[in-house]
Structure formats: C-alpha cells, structure tokens
Amino acid sequence: MLTVVLSAIFGIIGAYAGGWLDESFSLFSNVMLVIPGLPLVIIISSYVPDKSIFLVAIVLALTGWAGSARVLRGYTLSVRNRDYVAAARVSGEKSWRILGVEILPNLIPLLASQAVFAVIFAILGEAGLSFLGLGASGSFTWGTMLFYAQNGLALRLGAWWWFVPPGLLIAAFGAALSLINFSIDEIINPKLRAQTRATRRKWNVSKAQLRQADKEGAL
Hints:
The protein has two domains: 2-188, MetI-like (MetI-like fold); 192-219. It is mainly α. The protein is built from eleven helices and no strands. The protein is flat, with a radius of gyration of 23 Å.
C-alpha cells in the first residue's frame, strides 16, 4: 500500500500539476530508478540491528515505487489532455475534484496492476533479505526457511524437504500474481482484449472442426 501511495503521489499528482513540481518529481523518480534496489535494501537493513516486519515493509516500499511512478506519470499525462478534463478545468472545478472524479477512476485498473506488481516485488525482496539474514527479527517466512536450510547444509546433506517447498511456494505464488497482473493488463489495454477474443474465437472454431472431423471419421 505504501508503494502504491508513493507512486501515486510522485506519478499522478506531479503529472497533473506540471511545471517545476512535475520536473522535480520526475528527476527524483529517475534517480531512484538508477540506484540499484537490492543493494540499497541490503545497506539500509544492515544498519538496523533489531528490525520489525513494518520496518522491512517501509524499506521495500521506499526502494520499489519509482518504476510504478513512471508508468502512472505517462498515463496521467495522456489523461490530463483529454477533452472532459479540460472541460472540468474550464468550468471552474477544483484540482482535487478533477483528480478524484475525472482522472483517478481511469487509473484504477492501472493502480491495481501496479499494486499486484508491488506485492510480487515485496515477496521476492523479503525472501531475499531473509535468505541473507537481514529480514525481520523473530519472523518465520519462506525466506527464513531458505536461510536456515542454507545454514544447516541442507543441499549438501540432500535434505530437499528443507529448501524445495519454500522455493516452490515462492515461485508458484509469484507466477499466480503475474497471471493476475496479465489479466489486469488485458482489461486495461483494448488491443490485448481484442487479441484475446480473437484467439478464443479461433480456438473455438478449431475445436468445432476437430469434433466434426471425429464424427466424420467415426462414420
């Protein structure tokens, strides 16, 4: 949630305001994109001896919002120049109302997609930190399972039940969220939606042809 909020502030508000605010927000987002995320997370986590799960969440959010902010900024710039937004601005609507009523509803599918992507990043980031021994103190997650498996020489001993289940669960959960993200992309992008419908029509036609061929072969 913190990642979505930060990306919305630096992406949506900056793009709608324009001028020096948009330029400063865009510059700060580009700087955060250039800085490698995982080394920065490791450095920040290593300086805090007693870490809570909330601190880990804050660290992951502070290092993972810039990409979503760039996506939201580009889409907001296109929505800001549309006729109904200009009509609302000319009619004297306040800026917060234009953002909340005219622009934000068009960004909800994109925000949902970015939220799913943020969850994937958070799971992989927390698992990586816990695997390196930099996770939340006293927590027990898939990453800590891999950490204890590594310290217990599970791979050398052939104890696959220590590291295979958490690794498979991380991969399966990340793949499931990625598929959800792809479906949200189809809702957002009309071209993908039309392509999916065309593929389904071809698939239905091919199945009908196969059934007809089976019937003719049986006769």
